[in-house]
């Protein structure tokens, strides 16, 4: 084989490599299906279409799926289909534990926002002051701010692109094993020495950036990201079945087991794949296990006041759009702090997605209409559009209900 052919093949592999991480700016942005126009007779009961959607989706995509919804009245509803795996066959429900991959970033970013609200850190702090003086930084790396790390606007790539990482990724395609060992180690900051910022300043999803954030948090506070999330987010919100060390949870033995789906490419769809375990700087980026009920409680804190002014300020900070700037409009993947916002007409959906090992996850919020949706699956599938579609349908139902309540025209 000629050298240029080898390079072409390597480039192809690298391209596929960039599409298989933990979590587009949302890793793969969900495309919402247009909701059907409500044609119900006023006063008739509303049979939620989700009852029809889930069984077929589970059969085609995942051994199990759990969906949780907060409606406009603040009421919670759950739907669950399938089992944890073919061996144990535990039925899933809202308390079944799932790995949620990059939803971890949302928790870590909000813990960081609490530290900012407390005055312990500042969004304008740069890596030059946030990292130890012994860490070598390029001129561009020195200027990266804390805000840029959490909004994926630092210019850092998804992960380091070197031969050891590529080798680990190729192994992953055949066995499903974790290929982020480098990002999980303290060696991750070495990648900053020769960083050169891209000319285009659009957001770039970066696991590397969040691994660096974990390192920063530990250096600045003496605590790892998971410990900060526990004390600043989980405890105030009473999230009891959420942990970055899930083996400590009583529900862990009955957790949903991850299965191959869209990834890994060379593992048969539906086969059990290994859980990804992190112990260092990737914990806060992708190590979280939680359930649907806890995620809805987390979502609810973004719809109403928690009663904690500092936490409320941090939450409001994370829900703001930071890119694009200067009143520009971006209908898809506008960058918040960890969150992303898509706009459909008058409806803004702020959301996160996660993909890791054999799992896919989604959390979406419509703050104006007071809706929230959580979708957890125990299969790695890029087809993660159910949450968006449900939020859009909920708005359609709300508008139909308002039409039914309106007085008839004279």
Automatic annotation (TrEMBL):
Q: List the PROSITE patterns.
A: PROKAR_LIPOPROTEIN (PS51257)
Give the SUPFAM superfamilies listed for this entry: beta-lactamase/transpeptidase-like
Question: A GO molecular function for this record?
Answer: beta-lactamase activity
Organism annotation = Buttiauxella agrestis ATCC 33320
**Beta-lactamase-related domain span:** 57-382
Q: Which UniProt keywords apply?
A: Hydrolase, Signal
User: By its UniProt entry, which InterPro entries does this protein fall under?
Assistant: Beta-lactam-related (IPR001466), Beta-lactam/transpept-like (IPR012338), Diverse_Enzym_Activities (IPR050789)
Give the protein name, as stated in the record.
Beta-lactamase
What Enzyme Commission number does this protein have? 3.5.2.6
Class of the enzyme per the UniProt entry, highest EC level: hydrolase
Q: List the Gene3D superfamilies hit by this protein, alphabetically.
A: DD-peptidase/beta-lactamase superfamily
Query: Which residue positions does the secretion signal occupy?
Result: 1-20
């Amino acid at each position: 084989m000629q050298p240029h052919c080898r390079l072409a093949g390597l480039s192809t592999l690298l391209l596929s490599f960039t599409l298989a991480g933990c979590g587009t700016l949302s890793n793969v942005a969900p495309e919402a299906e247009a909701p059907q126009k409500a044609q119900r007779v006023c006063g008739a009961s509303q049979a939620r279409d989700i009852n029809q959607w889930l069984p077929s989706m589970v059969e085609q995509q995942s051994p199990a799926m759990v969906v949780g919804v907060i409606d406009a009245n603040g009421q919670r509803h759950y739907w669950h289909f399938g089992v944890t795996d073919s061996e144990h066959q535990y039925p899933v429900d809202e308390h079944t534990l799932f790995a949620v991959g990059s939803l971890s970033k949302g928790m870590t970013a909000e813990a960081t926002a609490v530290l900012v609200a407390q005055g312990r850190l500042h969004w304008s702090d740069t890596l030059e002051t946030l990292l130890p003086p012994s860490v070598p930084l390029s001129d561009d790396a020195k200027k990266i701010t804390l805000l840029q790390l959490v909004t994926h606007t630092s210019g850092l790539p998804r992960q380091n692109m070197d031969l050891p990482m590529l080798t680990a990724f190729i192994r992953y395609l055949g066995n499903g094993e974790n290929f982020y060992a480098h990002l999980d180690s303290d060696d991750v900051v070495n990648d900053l020495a020769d960083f050169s910022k891209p000319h285009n300043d659009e957001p770039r999803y970066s696991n590397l950036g969040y691994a660096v954030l974990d390192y920063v948090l530990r250096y600045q506070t003496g605590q790892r990201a998971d410990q900060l999330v526990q004390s600043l987010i989980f405890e105030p919100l009473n999230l009891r079945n959420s942990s970055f060390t899930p083996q400590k949870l009583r529900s862990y033995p009955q957790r949903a087991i991850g299965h191959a789906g869209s990834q890994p490419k060379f593992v048969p769809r539906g086969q059990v794949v290994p859980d990804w375990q992190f112990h260092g700087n990737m914990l806060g980026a992708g190590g979280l296990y939680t359930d649907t009920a806890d995620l809805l409680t987390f979502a609810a804190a973004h719809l109403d006041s928690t009663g904690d002014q500092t936490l409320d300020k941090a939450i409001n900070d994370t829900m703001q759009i930071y890119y694009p700037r200067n009143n520009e409009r971006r209908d898809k993947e506008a960058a918040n702090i960890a969150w992303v916002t898509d706009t459909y007409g008058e409806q803004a959906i702020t959301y996160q997605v996660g993909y890791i090992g054999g799992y896919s996850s989604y959390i979406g919020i419509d703050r104006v209409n007071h809706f929230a949706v959580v979708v957890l699956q125990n299969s790695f599938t890029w087809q993660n559009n159910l949450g968006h579609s449900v939020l859009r349908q909920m708005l359609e139902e709300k508008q139909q209900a308002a039409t039914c309540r309106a007085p008839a025209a004279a």
